[in-house]
Q: What sequence folds into this?
């Protein structure tokens, strides 16, 4: 079967005036237009292509790589808005359509929007939706506490940042766990800090718990070396000062210096930390 909105590995089956036809193992064919045909090829050569619908709503193949594929999320620019909806730049000749009913807020030309690409079963067309939450499911989690996860920044809230977890689930990074600037569509790495009631996921950037001690200790060691073995911080320092200087929470900081102190690597004084 040839899959719309996805990459397919197909055989070059036959030549035609408008290009070459590619076929799958079941004999289904799709046109690869001349502009994408390799300069040198042989019949039955295999080729990787992306398949979508052209302006005539016919399946067509391309060797170009879109910014988003079916089932994925991406930050796309709106090129045009018509009476039917918005048209987004996804890196292909034909733009990706986002109907008004799939827009959280009315899109405007030049604006950037985080969208999900899916196949509309009624029309068999690839479309975009900025209502990304409806494509996420936390009822059946595929992650657990301390799992490393891939994140996409979705939208901010009063308590932190909402993120898409492994392209499947919804998660939240609390403000006190954020030590860098985050923008919509950013792709990040994180860890499941906690699974709360209702399968709500608390996410931390980087590593958490005992796993965070070693990286944070390394960070403190580097700061000490860069400042002649002295750091004007200790376990009584203001959390905001620690966050600004080391980009970590006070809790993580205290764990890290505790580890270094027990290993007799540092000495903790009222005026700060000294490297031994």
A:
């Amino acid at each position: 079967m040839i899959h719309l909105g996805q990459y397919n590995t197909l055989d070059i089956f036959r030549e035609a005036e408008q290009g070459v036809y590619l076929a799958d193992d079941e004999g289904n064919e799709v046109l690869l237009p001349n502009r994408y045909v390799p300069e040198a090829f042989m019949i039955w050569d295999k080729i990787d292509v992306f398949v979508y619908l052209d302006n005539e709503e016919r399946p067509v193949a391309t060797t170009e790589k879109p910014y988003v594929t079916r089932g994925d999320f991406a930050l796309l620019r709106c090129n045009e808005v018509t009476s039917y909806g918005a048209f987004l730049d996804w890196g292909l000749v034909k733009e990706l359509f986002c109907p008004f009913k799939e827009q959280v807020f009315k899109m405007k030309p030049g604006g950037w929007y985080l969208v999900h690409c899916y196949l509309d079963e009624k029309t068999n067309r690839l479309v975009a939706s900025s209502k990304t939450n409806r494509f996420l499911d936390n009822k059946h989690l595929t992650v657990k506490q301390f799992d490393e996860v891939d994140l996409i920044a979705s939208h901010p809230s009063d308590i932190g940042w909402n993120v898409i977890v492994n392209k499947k689930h919804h998660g939240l990074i609390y403000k006190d766990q954020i030590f860098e600037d985050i923008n919509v569509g950013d792709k990040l790495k994180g860890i499941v800090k906690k699974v709360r009631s209702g399968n709500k996921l608390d996410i931390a950037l980087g590593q958490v718990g005992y796993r965070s001690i070693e990286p944070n200790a390394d960070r403190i060691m580097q700061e000490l070396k860069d400042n002649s073995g002295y750091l004007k911080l200790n376990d009584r320092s203001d959390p905001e000062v620690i966050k600004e200087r080391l980009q970590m929470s006070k809790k993580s900081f205290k764990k890290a210096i505790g580890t270094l102190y027990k290993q007799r690597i540092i000495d903790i004084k009222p005026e700060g930390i000294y490297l031994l």
